[in-house]
Amino acid sequence: MPLKQRLPKLRGFHNRWRHEFVVVNLGKLARFEPGAVVDADVLTEAGLIPRASSPIKVLAAGHLGHPLTLRVDRISGSARTAVEAAGGSVELVGPQPRDESVTRGKAAARATKRAAKVDAAEARAAAGPAAESTGKRGPRKGATAEPTETETPATQPTATEAGAGAAERPARRARKAAAAEAPEPQPEPDGTPDNEAETEDSE
Predict the structure, then answer these.
(1) Which residues of the chain have pLDDT under 70?
(2) CB of 74 within 8 A of CB of 54?
(3) I want to staple 71 with a disulfide (CB 3.0 to 4.6 A). Which of 39, 50, 98, 152 is the partner?
């Protein structure tokens, strides 16, 4: 037989880390007396779960009008609110997840980047305007940066260079004025001989 026919056929995806919870609705807990402690053993005796070793999760279906103390593995947010509103309390037993947020995939990367941006904004706000002026970004367009007293910018000329430039300015101005006042050379007429040889030939 071909290899593809000899291999076992596994239909679908089977998650080996899947946790199966036994669901108990909040309305079914109304049979217990007010102030009672409801745990896995009590639920097993009442016939609400098959065995005490099963992880239990309480959902908010139904109504609970008296206080109870629940000792379960998981509970929904609305069910916790209903139990606390009735005067009861919730105690989570067994191993709990590290964080309720997404910890893998693209959603986790986006959440991490968003949290980093929020932290950076809070840090800038806490540091104040002085920290913002010393950031990596330069001054805005149209704004002039004034040099401080402690540091001298590289583009600012020194005292020696400034003195030398001031001494050369009158000389440059005099040269420009002389060049402007010099008469322009007049073009020679067409009939005027250019040299002595041509003058002798013409005679």
Answers:
(1) 99-104, 129-167, 182-203
(2) no
(3) 39
